[in-house]
Amino acid sequence: MESPTLNTRAPRAAGMSWPTVLTALIFVLLLLVPVYAAVTDSAYVLLQFSRILVFALAAVGLNLALGYGGLVSFGHAMYIGIGAYCVAIASHYGADSGLLHLLLVVVVTALIAAPVGLIALRTHGIAFIMITLALAQMFYFLAVGLKQYGGDEGLPIRQLSRFGELTGSHVGLYLALLACLGASLLLLRRVIRSRFGLILRASSMDARRVRAVGTSPLAYRLLAYVLSAELCALAGFFLANLTAFASPAYMAWTSSGELIIMVLLGGAGTLIGPLVGAAGFLLLEEVLKGLTDHWMIIMGPIIVLIVLFLRNGIWGMIVSPKEH
């Protein structure tokens, strides 16, 4: 009586374990990065992987809007800049409390993302792309015009976000980033499997049919947009503390384009894809920069070929579609 029960459960466990084990392995390897950096006395390795985690967090945020909501936003880098400037401007006036910085990031981002999303979501397709690009450029030039905060030269951060003994610790910042990324992925997993996620994905396929069954997709898409903006702003908070600097360049449309590439490279609409895409993009960039000054000429075609022939991205190639 016991053997049939074991036989029927085993295939399910095996089928579900592969992406879970692979994800756990990725996080274990990331957890070992500070150890490797300490053993080899390489601060650069820790800095580079911290940068990867920052953009992975931002890509996870964009993936909620782009991958699951079908919202191709060309302005999400704006929120990275907003998060960085919240830290920089508060520090400029002597407010260095880390909790205050986080509160400012969350509140300011929500106050900006909600009306921006509400305006942009009145459109769709190319119009949505263009309006998010236009609004992001408006904030970019606003940052450039704020000469009292450095203008186009950016604003150095005199005092990083204060979190007791962890203040200024590169290892502490890295581990906080890793924990935040893990928590964001777990939250996103729950959101996508909820009724909210179901309606969001249905809206990306056919919003008219969603409305036809009596559900307005606008509120769900707006909430997804704001949540994705918050994750990007949180990445900006970490980026400011990593570089001790805030710059309008963080908001540039090229940065938004790179975020989209990271999502597509790893696999849009997959949970771990943005992390894999961010790591792949930034590591490939680093390798090619070491080979030639004309690295973009090589990197461009490589990314185009990957996106064209791996429709589900790198993560989609590794795991089957049902296991994303």
TrEMBL record:
Regions that span the bilayer: 47-66, 73-93, 99-119, 126-146, 166-188, 218-239, 259-284, 296-318
KW Cell membrane (keyword) present: yes
Subcellular location: Cell membrane
Membrane topology: Multi-pass membrane protein
Listed Pfam families: BPD_transp_2 (PF02653)
Keyword terms of this UniProt record: Cell membrane, Membrane, Transmembrane, Transmembrane helix
Domain of life: Bacteria
Entry keyword Nucleus: no
PANTHER family: ABC TRANSPORTER ATP-BINDING PROTEIN (PTHR30482:SF17), HIGH-AFFINITY BRANCHED-CHAIN AMINO ACID TRANSPORT SYSTEM PERMEASE (PTHR30482)
Protein name listed in UniProt: Branched-chain amino acid ABC transporter permease
Species whose genome carries this gene: Castellaniella hirudinis
